[in-house]
Amino acid sequence: MSKYVVGVSGGIGSGKTTVTNAFAKLNVDIIDADVVARDVVTPGSDGLRAIIEKFGTSILDKGECLNRRALRQIIFSDEQAKEWLNNLLHPLIRQETLRQTIAATSQYCMLSVPLLIENGSYKNVDRVLIVDIPEEMQLARSMVRDNADEKIIRSIMAAQASREQRLEVADDVIDNSGDESALIGQVSRLHHRYLGYAAALG
Ligand code: ADP
């Protein structure tokens, strides 16, 4: 089990995945909240079973997987269904995150959580690393990656914590406004620092 947990966050398109991939190459175990959120509703899971019981099999796609778009549509217009779903998923996500954190074997591990600041989970990690870029760059990179229009990305950005709020709780900041090669030195420096912190725990 990794005793030392670094929480990683940043707004949409800031480069969390790019940065955690770089740490993963250094053999750091990464627990990604987005992946965990998908894991808890895979076919055969308790999560998906409960969702089928509630909304019927029409919530599945042809491959018997959860049809996320259909589910989003239901909860968009039904506040009670949204609350029911959150009450189901949040404990499952918490449990699975804990399981993966306990299973991590690297000297320290990273917990990548898009809403680390918004949901208060930054209080449960040993250190907070924020991936930071200017908002206009966040917008441009997200639009290209998701092939999405400006309005959609701006509305997601508006629902997230602000750049200032994130930086306020950051212990460390990675500046991802340069090209990807500019990340290597920053990642390497932080990696050695985190190894030191983890070793100091004994
Ligand atoms: P997040 O996980 O925070 O949403 P990603 O890591 O997916 O962000 O990065 C968003 C997009 O920007 C991706 O298409 C990624 O390839 C690209 N990207 C990330 N870092 C850089 C960089 N330094 N220079 C250019 N493009 C980048």
Descriptive account of the structure:
The model has no long low-confidence stretch (mean pLDDT 95). A 5-stranded parallel β-sheet has the order 2-3-1-4-5, sandwiched between helices. It has 2 domains: 125 residues, Rossmann fold; 70 residues, no CATH class. The protein is 55% helix and 12% strand. The relative contact order is 0.22. By secondary structure, it is an alpha/beta fold. The structure holds adenosine-5'-diphosphate. The site of adenosine-5'-diphosphate has 14 residues, from helix 1 and helix 6. Adenosine-5'-diphosphate (ADP) binds next to helix 1 and helix 6.
- Bin the strand percentage: 5-15%
Radius of gyration: 18 Å
Uncertain ranges = none
Topology, number of strands? 5
